[in-house]
Amino acid sequence: MRRTLIVLWLAAAVPAFAQQPANLEPIPEPPPMPAEGAADEPEVTIVKRGEDTVTEYRLRGKLYMVKVTPPHGVPYYLIDKEGNGQMVRHDGTPELAVPMWVIKSW
């Protein structure tokens, strides 16, 4: 039994030792880091308009989303979906309405 285990262990270990690494090439240098202001991070501006808090999100200077938080109620978003400056209100509810018809009832 002990001899069988040793033979099985050696049979499993030999292929791992037999593998020789191929001729490997050195790793190329990474590209240079972008400039400090060139990163694609959004600019966030928080403004208080009346009682509402308005958060504006800009990417490369272009306004793409506005979050309006009223003092009492649920915040809503105005999103520029097509990039043409037309803001569409988004309340966070799904836009897909699943039909729920009653097919049969008893």
TrEMBL record:
Region named Disordered: 22-43
Coiled-coil regions listed in the entry: none
Protein biosynthesis among keywords: no
Keywords: Signal
InterPro entries: DUF2782
Region forming the signal peptide: 1-18
Keyword Acyltransferase: no
Name this protein carries in UniProt: DUF2782 domain-containing protein
